[in-house]
Design a protein that fits this description.
The protein has 245 residues and is mainly α. Helices cover 84% and strands 0% of the residues. It has one domain (28-244). The chain has helices spanning 2-20, 30-40, 43-65, 74-112, 115-121, 126-163, 169-179, 182-208, 214-244. The radius of gyration is 21 Å and the shape is elongated.
Length: 245
């Protein structure tokens, strides 16, 4: 029954957050600061992972299609697998691993140092001050990070397909272009924003409900990345079922 109790506390957390932001503007300046921290600082690891995912897509697609004589279809495989599915989930898992753990640990440390209580003493709602800027920031940057993941995945796949596998680069890009359309790109952006909301809410909830002390901070950080990653992967399946089923 513990997971039901946790789910109930999470629902209460989301309700309190919505109530704290009723008829209130977000803290000025903090949203852009959090957007830089979440987006720009997560960019290097996202680029690195996207490059190697793209190269593996070309290699695996070529190995799968060559026995059938369809190695020229690697571009279609990269577009369908990379753009529709992998790019948004790559961006989500990297942000969860980098920014999500940072959110959870920062808020957990503030609880340990009683800084959250100090905000309440100063008549500042901690949810409005700590969660709202992070939530708005991650909703702003996740679509951009998803676009970066798409471009990097396709570019690295094209490079391997042409330089290593000897495929025609123009034909590769033609298959990419004809295999996806505006609906697929909008679906990726929608996934990115939903994943961003989930990552922020889960990470901040883990930070707010953490036990005090170093052990509590560590547990909150670990719980945030695990729960956020599993939630995003599960939601990716459900969203794909709705959008493409």
């Amino acid at each position: 029954m513990s997971w039901l109790a946790t789910l109930g506390r999470f629902a209460g957390f989301c309700f309190d957050l919505a109530r704290a932001n009723t008829f209130r503007m977000p803290p000025p300046g903090r949203t852009m600061e959090e957007a830089y921290r979440i987006g720009v600082q997560s960019l290097p690891v996202l680029l690195l992972i996207s490059v190697f995912v793209g190269t593996n897509l070309s290699l695996q697609g070529y190995a799968a299609f060559t026995p059938l004589g369809g190695q020229r279809l690697v571009g279609m495989f990269v577009a369908l697998a990379g753009v529709r599915e992998l790019a948004p989930i790559i961006a989500a898992t990297m942000v969860a691993a980098k920014a999500g753990t940072e959110m959870a640990s920062q808020i957990a440390v503030m609880r340990t140092r009683e800084q959250v209580d100090a905000l309440e003493v100063m008549a500042i709602n901690p949810l409005w001050w700590l969660v709202t800027p992070r939530l708005l920031a991650i909703v702003l940057v996740m679509p951009a990070l998803t676009v970066v993941a798409i471009f990097t995945t396709i570019a690295s796949s094209w490079l391997v397909a042409t330089a290593q596998l000897g495929l025609n680069g123009t034909e590769f890009l033609d298959f990419v272009r004809t295999s996806i359309d505006a609906k697929d790109l909008l679906a990726c952006e929608l996934k990115g924003m939903i994943f961003g909301v989930v990552i922020c809410l889960v990470s901040c909830f883990c930070g707010f409900t953490s036990a005090k002390g170093p052990e509590g901070v560590g547990q909150a950080t670990n719980s945030a990345v695990v729960i956020a990653s599993v939630s995003c992967v599960t939601l990716n399946f459900l969203l794909s079922q709705v959008l493409y089923g």
